[in-house]
Design a protein that fits this description.
By secondary structure, this protein is an alpha+beta fold. It folds into 3 domains: 12-139, no CATH class; 184-256; 265-395, Histidine kinase-like ATPase, C-terminal domain (Heat Shock Protein 90, 2-Layer Sandwich). The chain has helices at 12-34, 47-57, 66-86, 106-113, 119-134, 144-222, 226-255, 258-268, 272-281, 299-319, 351-354, 361-371, 399-402; strands spanning 286-291, 325-332, 335-342, 375-380, 386-393. Strands 1-2-3-5-4 form a 5-stranded mixed sheet, covered by helices on one side. β2 and β3 form a beta hairpin. α1 runs antiparallel to α2, α3 packs parallel to α5 (119-134) and α8 (258-268) crosses α10 (299-319). The longest helix is centred in the middle third of the chain and has 79 residues, at 144-222. It is rod-shaped.
């Protein structure tokens, strides 16, 4: 069966609830049999009680071993049917006190399987149990209605609430996506205005400053007054520095990294270690390996590396349930290498998660990396896992700034 594997339990509430239900049903079956409702076959008077209690207790392992628990309950239902048809009294009393013709834990099991089995397999299982419970070949008012209440009704209720949960999740994701799209349109408008300002600064301010520097340089050559030459040299030097700063600013404005740099300088740079801890806290074993000195890279590069790790680990949680991940950060004088790998998933992804994305995550990430002069590669691994690798420079390259800074200053 296609199933989603959790830990032993999804959370403490589910653990307490499942254990409590299993114990209550076990106590109920024992109480009924103590009241005189025992089996009379060769297996002894407690055969039916032992069978029911064992199946009740398997509910505790439902989320860890859903296929095994389902198979055991189905096998128990088949044995009860065989006893009723071929050996009355062996596993089911000849005159039972209850009208259940399948294991008493069946309704609870079916209501919870909607969380771990896909809809087609769940309906198939419910159909088989419904046939066993209702005995259509010998339909009667004492079996058919209660058989449907024990099988079809729990499945219908569970599927309704599961569909409602997915619908609410989908609506929430659509609202968030619309908000992101509005934010993207605003950013695009801002970027267009920023490029226009960069052009104006380049064409007007840079031109005027260049003329000022040239005139100051000429004055230092032709003037015979030492004081005038010294002042002219000061003007030329400060003008050259202003040109250098202006070219860098124009370059940053043109490649769109200004807002990123400003945000990081404001102290909002994320720590990849936090993302690794968050990923591990939601059940994805994640390791972080970092080498080198983070001080070698600029804040903008640190921000981009954080986004690479964030998007990669988000994709692992969405599309690779049951896998583990490794994050490697290698700082060096030339920049930063980021690699995020995950092992092969052990089951299918939750449709509510895999269908929530826009499909543009890696494309947007690649655009962000290329914007600062880096390179991003993303591809599946031969063993079934996935690998995202980003090679980032040490600082944001600016075309304008390199004309007057051939050594490649770090900002």
């Amino acid at each position: 069966m296609t199933e989603i594997r959790w830990g032993l339990w999804p959370n403490r509430t589910d653990a307490a609830w499942l254990i409590g239900v299993a114990l209550v049903f076990s106590a109920g079956n024992i109480t009924i049999d103590l009241a005189g409702n025992r089996t009379t076959g060769w297996a002894g008077p407690w055969a039916g009680t032992v069978l029911q209690v064992l199946l009740d207790l398997t509910l505790i392992l439902l989320f860890r071993l859903p296929g095994t628990v389902t198979s055991l309950v189905l096998a128990g239902a088949v044995l009860m049917l065989a006893s009723d048809l071929l050996a009355p009294g062996l596993l089911v009393p000849v005159r039972p006190l209850t009208l259940m013709t399948v294991p008493t834990i069946t309704p609870v099991l079916l209501s919870q399987l909607a969380r771990v089995l896909d809809r087609r397999r769940l309906l198939t299982l419910a159909g088989v149990l419904a046939v066993i419970a209702t005995r259509p070949w010998n339909a009667s008012w004492s079996t058919t209605p209660f058989g449907l209440l024990a099988t079809a009704l729990p499945v219908a209720i569970a599927l309704y609430f599961e569909a409602r949960r997915q619908l609410l999740s989908s609506l929430r994701d659509r609202a968030e996506r619309a908000e992101r799209e509005q934010h993207l349109l605003a950013e695009q408008a801002t970027a267009a205005e920023r490029r226009r300002l960069a052009g104006e600064m380049h064409d007007v301010v840079t031109h005027r400053l260049s003329l000022m520097v040239l005139h100051a340089g000429a004055l230092t050559v032709v003037s015979r007054d030492e004081a005038v030459r010294a002042s002219a040299e000061d003007i030329r030097r400060e003008g050259a520095l202003a040109l250098d700063e202006l070219r860098d600013l124009v370059g940053v404005l043109r490649n769109g990294a200004h807002n990123e740099t400003r945000t990081l300088l404001a102290g909002e740079a994320g720590d990849p270690a936090t993302l690794v801890a968050e990923s591990a806290s939601v059940g994805v074993p994640t390791e972080l390996a970092a080498s080198g000195d983070p001080a070698l890279i600029s804040p903008t590069i640190a921000r981009t590396a954080y986004r690479v790790v964030q998007e990669s680990l988000t994709n692992v949680r969405k599309h690779a349930p049951g896998s583990s991940a490794t994050v490697e950060l290698r700082y060096h004088p030339g920049g930063l290498d980021v690699e995020v790998r995950n092992t092969a998933p052990t089951g299918p992804g939750d449709p509510a998660l895999t269908g929530s994305g826009s499909g543009a995550g890696l494309a947007g990430l690649r655009q962000r990396v290329e914007l600062i002069g880096g390179r991003l590669e993303a591809a599946p691994l031969s063993g079934g896992g996935y690998r995202v690798n980003a090679i980032l420079p040490a600082y944001v390259p600016t075309t304008e700034g390199t004309h007057s800074d051939p050594g490649g200053r770090r900002r």
